[in-house]
Amino acid sequence: MKKRNITEFQILSEIVRKQPHIKQKEIAEVLGITVQGVSEHVRSLAKNGFIKSRGRGEYVITDMGMEHLKLWIGDFKDYLSEVNQNLYRYKDTWPAIANEDVKKGDKVYLYMHKGLMYISKTKTTEASAIVYEDGKKGDDISIHELEGYVDVRKGKVIVLKIPPKVKGGTSVVNVEFVKKIMGENPDAVIATMGTVSAVLLHKLDIKPDIRFGVSSGITNACTRGCDVIAFVTGKMTENVLNEIDKNKISYTILDAELESND
């Protein structure tokens, strides 16, 4: 993000925290910039319709400003995630999972699989490292001297909408359709929200990876490169979709009810 956008994000954040009783001098003191600098940004924010004056130098955020603040928060999350990933490169050693037997001093390549870091001597990627110790396939291995960048694509979500009990619950779920989706996405992380969804997975002998803090769990999995199948009961779908939208994650909604897939 541009420096100007960051400053305006901070000003909007301060207005949200303390509105309507906040003045430019207070904002300047918190952000460590001049009152003149705050005034310039405030004029820009007001001109764009993000804030409005309540008189006597007091300001409140508008609905438009709130929407832009939410977008900026999403951008900051992506930016900070990238910075954090780059900082992580400078650790002395990294833990990773060996895709095959390795020996100390081997050059290996790094890649992500289901949210975990793997190393391989044969699967070439843009990121490489040196093995710090001998190990067998499947062992946790220490690596160092990282070079390059581990490409982590943002995962996608399939939201399987499960009918609530008042609409029939598991008795009206198209089980074959659900199995088909599962078969087409064998490496997906499985999330479940709601009693009916939990019962359905139990009947299918599927153990979910995410049961609690589901909305944030889904977004965290996607930012680590995992695709997710989310079994969500009825109206709970809206809460999940709001969090996915906020984090700019691609998704598909599928109805698991029998009549919807006949």
TrEMBL record:
<dbReference type="InterPro" id="IPR057161">
    <property type="entry name" value="DUF7839"/>
</dbReference>
<dbReference type="GO" id="GO:0003700">
    <property type="term" value="F:DNA-binding transcription factor activity"/>
</dbReference>
<dbReference type="InterPro" id="IPR012318">
    <property type="entry name" value="HTH_CRP"/>
</dbReference>
<dbReference type="InterPro" id="IPR036388">
    <property type="entry name" value="WH-like_DNA-bd_sf"/>
</dbReference>
<dbReference type="InterPro" id="IPR036390">
    <property type="entry name" value="WH_DNA-bd_sf"/>
</dbReference>
<feature type="domain" description="HTH arsR-type">
    <location>
        <begin position="1"/>
        <end position="84"/>
    </location>
</feature>
<dbReference type="InterPro" id="IPR012015">
    <property type="entry name" value="UCP_HTH_arc"/>
</dbReference>
<dbReference type="Pfam" id="PF25211">
    <property type="entry name" value="DUF7839"/>
</dbReference>
<protein>
    <submittedName>
        <fullName>Transcriptional regulator, MarR family</fullName>
    </submittedName>
</protein>
<dbReference type="Pfam" id="PF13412">
    <property type="entry name" value="HTH_24"/>
</dbReference>
<dbReference type="GO" id="GO:0003677">
    <property type="term" value="F:DNA binding"/>
</dbReference>
<dbReference type="InterPro" id="IPR001845">
    <property type="entry name" value="HTH_ArsR_DNA-bd_dom"/>
</dbReference>
